Amino acid sequence: MSKEIKYYSNLRIFDKSGSKYIEKRYTLPTLNRQDLEDLMQRIVLQRSAFEDLHIPISRLENIEIQKEDNLFQLVVIEKFEGLDFVDVVDESNFEMYLERMLNDIYKPLLSSTNNEILPVGIDTAIRNCVFRIHEGDFCYVDFMPPKVNYRGHLTQEVPEIEGEFYNIRILSHNNRFGVVYMLYINLARRYPSKRRVIASLIEQFLNNIDKRELFSFIEESPFYRLKSNTDAIEIIKNINDWKGLNYLYLREGACIAAQYNQTFAENIEDFFKLTHHETDPDSIEYGLLPDARFKKAKSELISVLK
To answer: Would you say the pTM of this structure is higher than 0.90?
Structure first.
């Protein structure tokens, strides 16, 4: 029987003493109490690492393990900091807020080391960045699953993943060049018509913090100097597997397709789900992108771009 189990969460916003808080309740069917103790420690470590780098983060009020219906739950309560990037931007302020997010979150992170691998990982999904009105800055709010060096291992998933997709996660979450490229993809995924503007603003930002070299994955992408949808089709045809940077090229290709096709843009999340790794632990392709889904993804992009 298929057991597509990782973890699932329930979110609740509530008022207490005139302030708003958010409760994140994670149910983890496959983990015992000791596993949850380790997970809780990793979350606290990632939060501490962000604080050490002076990256604004949501204020943690409480974190504890509870048991309900014979299942352990990890319950995290944080201050409700505000609305995320997607909810605060519009056509008139997009560039201003993007520049602010880059400076508030990514400047201290990318400047923290000259090594290829960051001291702490980050999920560049743009909804993970919330604008705090009173402080006038963006803060980072998502620490599950934690991406931190724990007992000599860079943790990525719950339960942990291995093999090629683990390498892709390191590339996307911990590699400084990959983090910049993945941020660009996630922004273009939400705002495909602004793709070139996004690339330009990221390049300008990197120039301003003397980290221009981190633009290289974007600049070296086969899509960077794209002239037509026909060119995009040829590039996608030449993606022979989903490993390493090819996986990110496939996802950038979806952003290109969304730029050309409004219907696809409105349903782009379906494509990103299609290209997610196999999550059924009973499958021989667990932790991989099944070949049938890889071929379907390429075929879908080519069809959209014709």
So the answer is: yes
